[in-house]
């Protein structure tokens, strides 16, 4: 790929903002948004070049995206924190809708009818089984406000950051979804919201998670580039399985009132529609 595409461009700040918003929501990944915005190849390529002799060009391309993502995270986290704390069930139903709405796009770009064989469907089942098993470990997550900050907790946030960053680069799996599965998502959203309110006691959570994300991005970008280049449809099959399986982790239970039922159904359909419309605009594989 030509290196002259890796140039600083302020027009990428709004694209980064959109990528940041979807990364806050456990559903559509920033990788998916980069795919929909037509910059996925450049995004992944720039990340993989950060630790090469072309790091200046890579940083020039990534900087406006990072600025946009940072603005989205700092300005939108309080909104998400409010809905997670006060309207938990409808919010999670919205997340489920967004996750399931991505699947038609993944099926289309995977060319399932022509490319998938038995091994691909086995991978889908494995992905579903893995996330179902993982969701069982997060059934009784503690309140975000009671998050621990001991050495063990900070290591957990770091490892979660590594895994989340690895997933957010894939066109389909949200890094925040990984955090939700591991019980860290409400904690991180709470910490960001508290930090923007000048409560610096949560800084250890943000630092450990942030270091994990940086580590995951640098390591995973090369691995994912290799997998998508050499095992494209096997990788897509795994992503589809993870998307289906992630609904087990997001599912919050059934609404408890008629009003809650109505709101949950409306936001679920809205989530489906938003993801489907974004995905419908993308006709080419990354």
TrEMBL record:
- Protein name, please? DUF368 domain-containing protein
Which keywords are on file for this protein?
A: Membrane, Transmembrane, Transmembrane helix
Query: Which organism does this record belong to?
Result: Jeotgalicoccus saudimassiliensis
The keyword Transmembrane is assigned to this record: yes
- Bilayer-crossing residues are 16-37, 58-80, 92-109, 116-134, 154-170, 177-196, 202-221, 233-252, 258-278
Is Metal-binding found in the keyword set? no
What InterPro entries does the record tag this protein with? VCA0040-like
In terms of Pfam families, this protein maps to: VCA0040-like
């Amino acid at each position: 790929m030509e290196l002259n595409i890796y140039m600083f461009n302020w027009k990428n700040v709004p694209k980064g903002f959109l990528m940041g918003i979807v990364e806050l929501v456990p559903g559509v990944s920033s990788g998916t948004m980069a795919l929909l915005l037509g910059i996925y190849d450049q995004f992944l390529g720039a990340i993989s070049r950060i630790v090469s002799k072309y790091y200046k060009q890579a940083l020039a391309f990534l900087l406006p995206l990072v600025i946009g993502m940072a603005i989205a995270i700092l300005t939108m986290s309080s909104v998400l924190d409010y809905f997670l704390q006060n309207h938990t069930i409808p919010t999670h139903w919205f997340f489920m809708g967004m996750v399931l709405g991505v699947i038609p796009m993944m099926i289309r770009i995977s060319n399932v009818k022509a490319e998938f064989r038995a091994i691909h469907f086995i991978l889908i089942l494995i992905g579903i089984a893995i996330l179902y098993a993982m969701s069982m470990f997060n059934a009784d997550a503690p309140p975000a406000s009671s998050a621990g900050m001991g050495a063990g907790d900070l290591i957990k946030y770091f490892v979660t950051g590594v895994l989340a960053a690895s997933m957010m680069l894939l066109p389909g799996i949200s890094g925040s979804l990984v955090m939700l599965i591991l019980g860290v998502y409400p904690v991180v959203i709470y910490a960001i919201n508290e930090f923007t309110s000048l409560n610096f006691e949560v800084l250890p959570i943000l630092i450990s998670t942030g270091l994990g994300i940086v580590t995951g991005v640098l390591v995973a970008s090369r691995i994912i580039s290799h997998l998508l280049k050499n095992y494209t449809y096997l990788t897509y099959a795994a992503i589809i399985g993870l998307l289906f399986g992630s609904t087990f982790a997001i599912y919050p239970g059934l609404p408890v009132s008629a009003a809650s039922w109505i709101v949950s159904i409306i936001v679920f359909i809205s989530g489906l529609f938003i993801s489907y419309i974004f995905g419908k605009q993308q006709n080419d594989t990354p």
